[in-house]
Amino acid sequence: MKYxxxxxxxxxxxxxxxxxxxxxxxxxxxQDSQRQAAYAAAAGAPVRSxxxxxxxxxxxxxxxxxxxxxxxxxxxxxxxGGCTDLEFxxxxxLTSNLxxxxxxxxxxxxxxxxxxxxxxxxRPVDVAKLKAVQHEQRRIEAAARPVSQS
Length: 150
Prior knowledge:
Blueprint: H1 10-22, H2 28-42, E1 49-51, E2 57-60, E3 65-71, E4 74-81, E5 93-94, E6 100-102, E7 107-109, E8 117-125, H3 127-138
Antiparallel strand pairs: 1-6, 2-3, 3-4, 4-8, 5-7, 7-8
Helix pairs in contact: 2-3
C-alpha cells in the first residue's frame, strides 16, 4: 500500500526546514556574522593561488566572500568582486589554469546569466581552527535558575 505524504514532499520539507530555521532563536543576521567571523579567525595570510582538482563543497559568506573546500580538511576563503546573489545561487564553479586558481585571473562561476565573479583575494583556512571557533560559538553557559520567593 502506498501512503501519500504531501508534507514530506521536496517543497513541503523545504518549507518545514525554513520554518524550523526561523524558529531557532538566533537571528539570521547574527548567524551569518558568526559564520563570517569564524572563517576570518581561521584564515591565514593571503596567497596568490592554490591547487584545484575538484570542488568538494562551498559555503557563501555574504555578497563578496565564500569558502570553497577542495578536500574535507582543505578550505580556502575567497574574496570576490562582481557577484550578484552569491548567497542565493544553487551551484558554483571555479575557473583554473593547469589546476591552479589564481588571484585576479580566475573567477567564480555562479551559473546565472550575469558576469563571473573575479577572485580578488585567496586565504587558506585552518579547518581544525575553524571547527574549534565554531564549537566555541555554540557553547552554552549554564547557570542555576534563581529560586523565586512565592
